[in-house]
Design a protein that fits this description.
elongated; single chain; mainly alpha
C-alpha cells in the first residue's frame, strides 16, 4: 500500500495532475497517462495488492478460527475478500485503459 501511495505522489510530481482518469477530461488525462512510465507500474502495484491481502486474511481466519464461535470473524473475512476482489476488478479496468487505450490515443 505504501508503494502505491509513493507511486501516486510520483505521478502527481511528474505529470502535474492527480493520478486519476476522469471522464470529463478524458483526452488530456489520456495524454498524461501516455507520457508517464510510472502509471503502469502504479496500476500493477494496486492490482497485485490482492495477493498479500488474501494472505493476511487467511492469517486472520486461522488466528480466530478456534475462538470465533459465532462466525463473526469468518463473515468479516468473506466481506473483506469480496471488497478486495471488487477493488481488484476496478484496478484491472484502469490498468486496461493505461496499457491499451492510452498508448494508442491520438489527440
Amino acid at each position: 500500500m505504501v508503494a502505491g501511495f509513493v507511486l501516486d505522489i510520483a505521478i502527481i510530481g511528474t505529470t502535474g495532475g492527480e493520478p486519476q482518469i476522469r471522464v470529463d477530461q478524458l483526452g488530456p488525462d489520456l495524454v498524461r497517462v501516455k507520457g508517464s512510465a510510472i502509471w503502469p507500474v502504479e496500476g500493477w502495484t494496486y492490482t497485485l495488492m490482492i495477493l498479500p491481502a488474501l494472505v493476511f486474511l487467511a492469517g486472520v481466519h486461522w488466528a480466530f478460527r478456534g475462538v470465533d464461535e459465532d462466525g463473526v470473524a469468518a463473515i468479516g473475512v468473506v466481506a473483506t475478500a469480496t471488497f478486495w476482489a471488487l477493488s481488484t476488478a476496478h484496478n484491472l479496468a484502469i490498468l486496461t485503459v493505461v496499457q491499451s487505450l492510452a498508448p494508442a490515443y491520438v489527440p
